[in-house]
Amino acid sequence: MSAPSPSLSDRHLLLGVTGSIAAYKAAPLVRLFKKSGADVRVLTTPDAERFIPALTLGTLSESEVLTEIFPENEEGSWTKHVTLGQWADLFVVAPATAQTIAKLAHGFCDSMLTATALSARCPLLVCPAMDRDMYRHGATQDNLERLREIGYEVMPAAHGELASGLVGKGRMPEPETIHDRVTEKLADAPEAVPGSHAQPSSLEDTSVLVTAGPTREPFDPVRVLTNRSTGTMGYALARAAADRGGNVTLVSGPTTLAPPDGVEVIDVETAEDMNEAVQARRATADLVLMAAAVADYTPAEQSPTKRKKNDDDLVLTLRRTPDILKRVGERKRSDQILVGFAMETDTPHANARRKLEEKNLDWIVLNDLTEDGAGFGPSTNRVTLLSREGTSEDLPLMPKPDVAEAILDRVLAAQESDS
Which of 35, 59, 60, 306 has the greatest CB tally within 10 Å of its CB? Predict the structure, then answer.
């Protein structure tokens, strides 16, 4: 194998190593990261040293390996997990056992590895490693899906011969594969100032109104017209705004998502319900983020009883629903920031720019459904930010929580430059 090019020059990488037979692969992975120019810190779970000595990983990384939450030899040990989380550009957990995956999925905090994962603002890449039946067990798969919902990226386990003698999926991806994925993830990310990360702009004393999710438009007591929105993007925006100190109200259509901490949630069903909730609160909001996928049409008449299958062809008459975004834009204060969303398939940039202007928006977030990873459903999103001033920025494919942070960063930075 040829030596990798310095594609990770001056990048800060955290490598989490857990108690798996595949832990021996962490040694060549550290070497690959170092040869590519990265600064590497290794965090381990207590069981990891059963499989690979801390001395080996420390020698290769040129830094002390940390396991306990309060390391004895580290200055500022009681906040070390926080400073590491701010220092890192990317956190890789390889190998990630079923036990550690479960802990990451449910917010356990019993080692330096798990504590730092909770503190880190950087992307986190999880590389599972376990036996075949453990990997495909429903509990493990649920935990992996939970990690994706949180915004972590999960690399699929590789297929092959396992330590048990079974053959199947469960092998940790090879170090070269992980190195290549890390390089890809960081290729479009801005380089951090060595030793520091910019703090996000504060929303302290700011009233934030967010809409999220689909609406349901009933045409009888059983059936509804709706769309594929899961609400994930809007909830991520509400959570990110609350984390920055904002006083956040979330008007949500029907979803299966847990309410974000510190956020007032108003549950609605129809487009008319959402319109009433938004119009009642828009005047006092300083920042309005309209991420909901509101139905454009609703049945003109709702049957009081379930419609029977009496006809081969059922014709429904539909009427327009209120244009909530337009109404907010028409009444927007001069000091109010209004951000809309556009989901397009044809001439997306032109349609998004027209929507921005017609509805008096300050920003619009464009989802181009023809691009992989964009739109409803996936835990990732790929968006373009268009501003009233005519700027346009394509963001790379990112977990939706990271997209939410990027949207707030751009919007607030523009506001600060204007003030």
Answer: 60
